[in-house]
Amino acid sequence: MSELLELDREHVWHPYSPMPGTSRPLLVESARGVRLQLAGGTELVDGMSSWWAAIHGYRHPVLDRAVREQVDRMSHVMFGGLTHEPAIRLATRLAGLTSLPHVFLADSGSVSVEVAIKMCLQYWRCTGQPAKRRLLTWRGGYHGDTWHPMSVCDPEGGMHHLWRGVLPEQIHADAPPTEHRGSYVDHLAGLIAEHAAELAAVIVEPVVQGAGGMRFHSPRYLRDLRELCDEHDVLLIFDEIATGFGRTGELFAADHAGVRPDVLCLGKALTGGYLTMAATLCTGRIAAGIPALAHGPTFMGNPLAAAVANASLDVLLDQDWRGEVKRIEAALRTGLEPARGLPGVVDVRVLGAIGVVQLGRQVDLARATEVAVRHGVWLRPFRDLIYTMPPYITGDDDLARITAAVIAAAQEG
């Protein structure tokens, strides 16, 4: 084990970390259900669903079988000029679930946002309005680490301030308040009206802002944005990479408002956390305005990923996923409630299978992780947040263990 970790430190560049690494990662040997088996025998309950993707846990028999059966047929074939059943069935199902008829299968969530932005920019260029080339978003958002997505992340509190002056300069509204406020709608309306001639699209994370701060906002703002975008002929993009497939208590977060965007980005839980795949969906209007979309990833429509995505949808939709998410929500509300009385805690919030404890200071990541591991739980705090987004199969005893670990990390980390 020590030899492997030394090789890891020397050669493996981990996300958001220096090279060589300064912290010692935990070595995972296997995973099953909601548990990670570490080298040396320690078992941890996964409170993060592998960055929110493994909604069915690990080694799910239906998903495992889908991968094995697809490998016996083909693991990959190029998507340019060829097609295959797993991708066709997946695109058809996603179109039916979202009422967005056209589906571009991308490599990852960040790439799906890149494709969404490219769709909107190319649409306006191809329809004779090339001046519409900027994007509007609200502060506190996070949309990925590739180029254009970085430009619509939070410009101050986000991770991409290093690139200021190099990235395209977009238009940032104030962060949305939790409750619906007419004054904030006026703020949005003023910005969209002022910049309508140059705005290609508005892009937001609906209801929950994820890695930018785990903030929740009223679904009514989505209806306001839909009306404002329609009024000023601006396209609307919803980034549901984190919120899609039941995480907020609705299949898609936009369902809380009954709003359909022009472009929708999906990822993370799309394959149940098994393989990297994302999707960018759009209306017929956008597809009709683009002669040929200028994007074509090598692994687009990968059959393995498409097959397991179909299996993940089967597992999700063939069960009472809504009831399971409500059960998790109730357990998180009960389990995290004591955190409200802790010194240094400024907020506790829960929505669906998302539980967040916000501190009035930066979390000591190493210390908070150590405390959670001591309680038998894997968490990955960031900034001033200790949070959990557990798999939907997490049992009540394990949910109690997760919330206890969150509270302990808030106390000691």
Largest sheet: 7 strands, mixed
User: Over the alpha carbons, how many angstroms does the gyration radius reach?
Assistant: 21 Å
Distance between the termini: 27 Å
Strand order of the largest sheet: 4-12-11-10-7-5-6
Low-pLDDT runs of 5+ residues are none
Q: What best-fitting shape do the alpha-carbon axes yield? A: globular
Q: What fraction strand? A: 15-25%
Structural class call reads: alpha/beta
Helix and strand sequence = HEEEHHHEHEHEHEEEHEEEHHHEEHEEH
The percentage helix is: 25-40%
Instruction: Supply the number of helical segments.
Output: 13
Q: Mean pLDDT, rounded to whole units?
A: 95
Total strands: 16
What does this protein structure show overall?
The structure is a single chain. The protein is 37% helix and 17% strand. It is α/β, with parallel strands linked by helices and 413 residues long. The strands form four sheets. It has a seven-stranded mixed sheet, sandwiched between helices. Helix 3 (61-73) runs antiparallel to helix 10 (303-317), helix 4 packs across helix 10 (303-317) and helix 12 packs antiparallel against helix 13. The longest helix has 18 residues, at 109-126. The chain starts with a helix and ends with a helix.
